[in-house]
Design goal:
297 residues; alpha/beta; 7-stranded parallel beta sheet; 48% helix
């Protein structure tokens, strides 16, 4: 009797992580089921070769149950700045328990215990719910992403903008490194059962350090300036519905306060061990993204 193929469910599958992770899973011959919120996202993933796409709202219990039914493992990425992120996380974990899912991988955040950060507290609560669920789990805790969208305005306007104190240090990580680890965890699950991994790239950076690296790579001076966090959130995500905007404002205020009064740092050892190579440096990341930007001009 033939066995049904193992299916990996990826939520927020057309987001920053999903767009990098899904092609790796497909290249490894995996059957992927993708959850997205729009038909445009569904079309993009279908064109990549995703075998199953579900379009719907992770806040809908019926949609979650349908999405989880029959999958072998789940990679859950909470939708960015969504006011129902906690409830979504709880709901998909509970559905995974009911369906007997073999492995639940949660994309959390570095130092989720920092509960004066609204979004971090949500992820901490989801981590606790997962730990109490009885599921085989892996938790990934990446540092702040070195995101290409943050660099495009730098390349175009020659200014790096940050929404908290410019002299505070932060750790960062290349999202390509994060999704490489996520693929490993999903493709070799038993090796990573019950693990919580901090994913941090090398170095520690103030905004001025970031400006210096950008200046060196681009070959001319890049200015650094601080902007209002709420304005940054609006520019990146739009105002959205009133409840969504209120949540975004609350999240942004907590980030600005915490990151302006405390450094936010981690250690790169775990990421290097998982990758089997040194993690990507910020300088190498900028070189990679600047080369891609120049190629598109």
């Amino acid at each position: 009797m033939a066995h049904a193929p193992a299916v990996i469910l990826v939520t927020s599958a057309n987001g920053n992580q999903g767009r990098r992770l899904v092609p790796q899973l497909l290249a490894a011959g995996q059957q992927v089921r993708a959850c997205v919120q729009s038909s445009a996202s569904a079309q993009a993933l279908t064109q990549l070769g995703v075998q199953e796409v579900r379009v719907g709202d992770l806040a809908d219990p019926a949609f979650i149950r349908d999405a989880v039914r029959g999958v072998s493992s789940i990679y859950h990425i909470g939708p960015t700045l969504h006011p129902a992120e906690r409830e979504m996380g709880f709901g998909i974990i509970d559905a995974a328990v009911e369906e007997g899912v073999g492995h639940f991988v949660f994309s959390s955040v570095l130092h989720a215990i920092t509960t004066d950060l609204v979004q971090y507290e949500i992820k901490r609560d989801i981590e606790e719910h997962l730990l109490s669920s009885g599921l085989e789990f892996t938790i990934l805790q990446p540092a702040n992403y070195m995101l290409p969208p943050r660099l495009k305005p730098v390349f175009e306007e020659q200014v790096f903008r940050l929404s908290w104190a410019l002299d505070r240090y932060q750790s960062m990580v290349d999202l390509d490194d994060v999704t490489e680890v996520a693929a490993q965890v999903l493709l070799q699950p038993t090796r990573h059962f019950s693990a919580t991994y901090e994913l941090v790239g090398p170095g520690r950076f103030t905004a001025h350090d970031i400006g210096r690296v950008l200046s060196e790579v681009l070959g001319h001076e890049i200015q650094v300036e601080r902007i209002d966090m709420a304005a940054f959130i609006r520019a990146r995500f739009g105002a959205g519905a009133p409840d969504t905007f209120a949540h975004q404002a609350k999240v942004s205020a907590s980030i600005e306060k915490r990151y302006s009064n405390h450094d936010f740092l981690g250690n790169t050892n775990v990421l290097g061990w998982l990758l089997g190579r040194p993690a990507t440096s910020f300088e190498d990341f900028v070189r990679k993204e600047y080369a891609a930007f120049q190629a598109q001009k």
